[in-house]
């Protein structure tokens, strides 16, 4: 094992702070980011979800505010801020943040950390013991190494974490293609907060990795969903959002 490469696992001293039945409660302050420049209101409703302890959700939060949440005391909390556009979930990418025991009782959620934290949230909510994993380093490495964290090869990272054999080389970008898209009439914005300032219209070439990508018109009346396969071939589907 290379020094400093695969030592992402930590030894936990159990001192009665892990959440569970009868675990004491603490109040956590969570600082939410502002709406990304370029996104409109789009009739969005926001909710803050978290994993750690029993996990939970707070509906009706607003970007830019500080939310106080009562949580079970534990070792790791992962926060994800989700936007729901006119009842449609998953149209815009979430923001995220983590708090570790000993870092205090305030967490900061950011758009840059949404990709890493949404993956960690899925793992922890599914029962994976994040208290044994160097969560902070993973989030920081994704932020530093990838210009657009949403191009992270999530499956590769997920398998490496679950297999307890992750290194910085597993924080890799999926292949990015130059995809030519014929957008429907109007001005369109990406549901990816890292690309929210891009103005798209007509026929243009967009850099996209494989997977599903969402674009909304300025009034959020329609959703343009683009699927890119592993060879860079794209298909687009237009759907009303009402």
Structure description:
This is Lipoprotein. The chain crosses the membrane at residues 7-27. There is one protein chain. With 242 residues, the protein is mostly beta strands. It has helices spanning 114-125, 135-145, 154-162, and strands spanning 25-31, 44-51, 56-61, 66-72, 76-85, 95-100, 106-108, 176-182, 188-190, 203-209, 211-217, 222-228, 234-240. The protein folds into two domains: 25-170, no CATH class; 176-240, no CATH class. It has a four-stranded antiparallel beta sheet with strand order 3-2-5-6, covered by helices on one side. A four-stranded antiparallel beta sheet has the order 9-11-12-13, with no helix packed on it. The chain has a three-stranded mixed beta sheet with strand order 4-1-7, with no helix packed on it.
Tags for this model:
242 residues, mainly beta, 2 domains, 4-stranded antiparallel sheet, transmembrane helix, membrane, transmembrane
Outline the fold blueprint.
Layout: E1 25-31, E2 44-51, E3 56-61, E4 66-72, E5 76-85, E6 95-100, E7 106-108, H1 114-125, H2 135-145, H3 154-162, E8 176-182, E9 188-190, E10 203-209, E11 211-217, E12 222-228, E13 234-240
Keywords: Membrane, Transmembrane, Transmembrane helix
Protein name: Lipoprotein
Transmembrane segments: 7-27
């Amino acid at each position: 094992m290379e020094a400093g490469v695969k030592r992402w696992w930590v030894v936990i001293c159990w001192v009665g702070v892990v959440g569970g039945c009868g675990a004491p409660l603490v109040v956590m302050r969570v600082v939410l980011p502002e709406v990304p420049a370029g996104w409109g209101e789009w009739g969005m409703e926001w909710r803050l979800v978290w994993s750690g302890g029993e996990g939970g959700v707070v509906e009706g939060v607003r970007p830019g505010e500080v939310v106080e949440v009562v949580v079970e005391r534990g070792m790791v909390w992962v926060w994800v801020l989700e936007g729901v556009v006119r009842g449609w979930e998953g149209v815009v990418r979430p923001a995220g943040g983590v708090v570790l025991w000993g870092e205090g009782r305030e967490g900061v959620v950011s758009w840059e950390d949404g990709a890493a934290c949404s993956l960690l949230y899925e793992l922890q909510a599914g029962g994976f013991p994040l208290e044994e994993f160097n969560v902070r380093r993973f989030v920081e490495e994704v932020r530093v190494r990838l210009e657009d964290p949403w191009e992270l090869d999530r499956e590769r990272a997920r398998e490496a974490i679950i297999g307890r054999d992750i290194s910085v080389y597993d924080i890799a970008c999926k292949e990015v293609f130059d995809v030519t898209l014929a957008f429907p009439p109007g001005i369109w914005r990406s549901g990816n907060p890292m690309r929210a300032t891009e103005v798209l219209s007509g026929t243009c070439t967009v850099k996209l990795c494989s997977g599903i990508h969402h674009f909304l018109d300025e009034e959020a009346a329609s959703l343009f969903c683009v699927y890119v396969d592993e060879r860079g071939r794209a298909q687009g589907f237009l759907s009303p959002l009402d």
